[in-house]
Amino acid sequence: MKDKTTAALMAFFLGGFGAHRFYLGQTGLGVLYLLFCWTLIPAFIALIDFIVFLSMNKESFDMKYNRVYFSQPIIHNYIPTSPIPQKDAATEIERLHGLMEKGMITKAEFEDAKRKLL
Question: SHOCT domain spans which residues (predicted)?
Fold first, then answer.
């Protein structure tokens, strides 16, 4: 697990060579710092990184650089629901009874559907 203080100290003392970026697992940036270390631009950026690391709180640092060490929370109370809402049997029987009274279905069809529901 990466430490904020260690990263800040590496940025201050060895930042011109990108040591803090290698430490944080950002090897691409570390190589870029090494390639341009002779220009002193990486040293200036490392000084800014030093200040940023010191002003960053531990939670922000951990979320940015130690994310792999923290597992995602597991939700144990998830209950999948059916995408189609289930009608209760009494409501469906009432609907079928209304259709039978209107003459849209026969008494035999009503009884058959009611038997399937119950």
Answer: 91-118
